[in-house]
Amino acid sequence: MARIVQKYGGTSVGDVERIKKVAERVKASHEDGNELVIVVSARAGVTNELLARARAVCSEPSERELDQLLSIGEQETIALVAMALQGIGVQAVSYTGAQAGIVTDTSFTKAKIQSIDASPIVKDLKSKKVVIVAGFQGVNVDGQVTTLGRGGSDLTAIALAAAVKADKCEIYTDVDGVYTADPRVVKNARKLEEISYDEMLELASSGSKVMQSRSVEFAKKYGVVFEVRSSFNYNPGTIVKEEVAYMEKVVVRGVAVDKDQAKVTVSNIPDKPGSAGKVFRSLAEANIIVDMIVQNLGRQGVANLTFTVPQGDSAKAVRALEPVLKALGGGEVAVYGQVAKLSVVGVGMKTHSGVAATLFEALAAAGVNIDLISTSEIKITVAIAVDKADEASRVAHGAFKLDTL
Amino acid sequence: MARIVQKYGGTSVGDVERIKKVAERVKASHEDGNELVIVVSARAGVTNELLARARAVCSEPSERELDQLLSIGEQETIALVAMALQGIGVQAVSYTGAQAGIVTDTSFTKAKIQSIDASPIVKDLKSKKVVIVAGFQGVNVDGQVTTLGRGGSDLTAIALAAAVKADKCEIYTDVDGVYTADPRVVKNARKLEEISYDEMLELASSGSKVMQSRSVEFAKKYGVVFEVRSSFNYNPGTIVKEEVAYMEKVVVRGVAVDKDQAKVTVSNIPDKPGSAGKVFRSLAEANIIVDMIVQNLGRQGVANLTFTVPQGDSAKAVRALEPVLKALGGGEVAVYGQVAKLSVVGVGMKTHSGVAATLFEALAAAGVNIDLISTSEIKITVAIAVDKADEASRVAHGAFKLDTL
After folding, report:
1. Which residue, A139, A289, A321, B147, could crosslink A98 as a Cys pair with Cβ 3.0–4.6 Å?
2. Closest Cα in chain A to B120
3. Full-prediction pTM beyond 0.80?
4. H or E element, residue A68
5. pLDDT for B23-33, tens place per residue?
6. Which CATH code, of 1.40.20.10, 3.40.1400.10, 3.30.2130.10, 3.40.1350.10, is assigned to A254-399?
7. Which of the residues A17, A43, A66, A69 would you substitute to probe the B interface, choosing the one with the greatest number of B C-beta atoms within 10 Å?
8. Distance in angstroms (rounded) separating the CA atoms of residues B166 and B7
């Protein structure tokens, strides 16, 4: 018997038939004697429908009203999942974010969880009820509905797992777990049994779409061990935790690729203290995520900065930079189309040298030209041509023997 | 400048175009300097869609979960109406039932309002915001969502009008107001400028579909004056209040017809004390509304009971009665198809004699046969054949000169 938090995403509860399948799955676990908290997202597609209606009545709706509107998506699912469980003889009760005592700050559409009063949930668990909680949403101290932004339902599950002191947290999704590389690209990619928080974080920020960084960060901070697994089969998934077996012996744990990047070059800006700061401050204020920053000096007195941004943000980046360059007294911005970021990640890198050399040699041997390089303690990232990205994945995967480790 | 509560039903907010029209209407009243609380229902059709989904996952969902589910219908509308107002430059803020402090008992699907803490709404009104409140819903003391049952949004509007001490309450619907008879049937039917609570109550229970009795009862209890009017034009509607001009001089205020009734006869039941009580207790427990009860004695020692029930409940009535007759030791139940109830209503009847005679003579002259008769202080009701009901409406309307008064 264990206390388990399970989270099902929008695809897993996409229609009434899938909701009934989730209910069957929950029933089986409940009959094993487990105490269960089930976190669910809105049905896939519902959020977009609601947003379309919002835009039809108002071009720029307030974020408070957007949250009031969007939160009904999960409220529908919790009620339907609770009913589906009741329909097969399982006692179940649904909680909105507010009812679950999930108190957030007042940053509508991207609120941060401040506290959870889980005592009513724990009381229901003790009386053998399955508790269904709306993911993605909370309430501020004034009782206004807030939403947690992207990846919010995962965050709800992990935060609740900490609050109810769960033995386990299971994140059900449409993939089997975390792989050494994208299995659609690298045929012999392996599912990882375990991965550390830090490795998972680096993979998340490197293009692995399994989970958002903030949920992993939250889990790391509160020591919540969680498993990423599929709701469409019963295969074991990948367990994410602090300490992983043979952690330092495995040099590279996985390869991640993000093909949706653009390279931006800011050249010939006056080389004086504060120039780079002003450039990146303006991008941060425009909410653009910048990666792989490289600076070099050009002709005397001027500097060049190169970095990557998400492809969709490149035009916005140019608009944000133009006034800055004017204020700095010179410089040009150029965008170099689409590039791919390839990252190899592993905690073991910290204590092993030669990882970078192995990667660069392998890519060179395969004729993949490296455009930019950046490194962290447990990650090496290179920018390469998009049309070389799949081949580069396979080469890197092979070079670090990820199929056999 | 006045403080006004306006209520818009599901048809008035049926799609985004209609929501924008409501917003224009609200804006105009707001620009006149009024403080506005807007109560809205779910978009027409949404409740049925949600119920269909509920039934698809569970044949008998719990009422708690039904309320959790159904309440999202109004939550969608309040957010969209608030956004539509913001889109045309009006400051607006939406409140769910819970946020509006509408506390009810725990009778899910038919909750009763216990208290309203309107102070946050009043604060928003004073800062010139239009306040949009979800009709039909509240919350119990444990924070569980409840719904108020049929006519719930009207009730929300009238209860809020009392709570915020509104100068006026306007119930917008798809009819122009309360008429002396159904204008589709009686060509010269007149819209009433005013009507008393008691007359409105008798009309509501007699087949006039304008409003449910409970909202009128609530308004009468708290002295809330309200106006029933159309959201599709700017015509004045009908004002409902305690004292109406020339109240006692107008003998009959209106004619109402309910064609959806069945006549039930329970014959040859043992004529002993308590028999009738048991018969009607069993119908009450089956939630069947009984009207026009007539008892007469048959052959020695047995009694016959005749009454009307809503047509759709007649089979249920038979099922409810069969075990009772068995327990009483005899009797038969028979249902006589569809009948119509025609009622004439007016506070003035109390002090005028001859109203019944005028009605019966007029119907007789038109060849309408009267099957059953029942009367209250301010109402006379007759059961007649359905195919005579329209003609009977016109005859009664003419007999009491309702077109000219």
Report:
1. A139
2. A142
3. yes
4. helix A63-70
5. 999 999 999 99
6. 3.30.2130.10
7. A69
8. 13
